[in-house]
Write a structure and sequence with these properties.
28% helix, five-stranded mixed β-barrel, four-stranded mixed sheet, globular, 351 residues
Length: 351
Amino acid sequence: MNNNHLIIMAGGVGSRFWPMSMPEKPKQFIDVMGVGKTMIQLTVERFSGIIESDHIWIVTSKKYKEMVMQQLPEVPEQQILMEPCMRNTAPCIEYVSRKIHAKHPDANLVFSPADHIVLDIPHFKEVIKESLDFTKDKDVIVTLGMMPTRPETGYGYIKSDNSKPAHCGGKILKVEAFKEKPDLETAKAYLADGGYFWNAGIFVWNVKMVVNTIEKLVPDLAKVFDRIEPHFYKDDEQDVIDELFPTCPNISIDFAVMEKSKDVFVYPASFGWSDIGTWGSLYTHIEPDENGNAVIGENIKMVGSGNCIVRSFGKKKVIVQGLDNYIVVDDNDCLLICKMQDEQSIKEWQK
């Protein structure tokens, strides 16, 4: 058996997908695409043949453990790690990495969000396999960069350093810099340049590199887990996590490590990726009708409407008449009707 491990980060609440996604059951545990599988199930499925089920780890909130167990019965219960509170991605990654390192010091790790989609699975698997092969015995980090297809302002970007030697037959490039989400004109310039890629938030590195890098670059975080580590795989582990995890700095892995490390590489790829962060992004992945409407559900009738996304399940018949470029969602005893252009306000409206 290989020593590859998959870590799925599944603690988010998906607030921009209200009312389908609720804090009690966020989008990673929902069949968002209407394909019969939830997003976290699709995430596990796309790694089949690369990662064995007993090498899959889920990091999530305590309140989602039962949903994880129900939807992913193949994942060992002891490999469902429960955060008592949200502390961003760096503490999440440190927790699972330190625990894996305690039993598997030569492990090679893939980190993936639970709520992204990938359309070209064979190409995705090829990229992951080649990235794992590159990182297994090197002190490097590989992050996946998506070939941009439009001047997107909703993603961060990765700038490659084309002055440095490429690896893996020219497929893996040195990273020059990480860029925050740009305005439209900057995004257009990135697209024209050709050396910028969307930051997919999927990255590969060996467990020794994770532990050593965080100890060097985020010592305050490492010190918290120096106190926690002696309790791994013991009866009091969760109690200690509940007590000490909230003291971790609230910091993303991008800010804590990726933007500071000199050993980060990017694998530019194009396998139909989306983070499905908003209704608008979901719209681009649903086959529209002749009027540009993306419909999810069976009892929906569109009348004189165009360029809308409509989602409704169950017996209720839904008729949408005279709307253009709208989001209509009937779910969880809530109804949302809003202009597509105003979707970023959904997070605020639900408060």
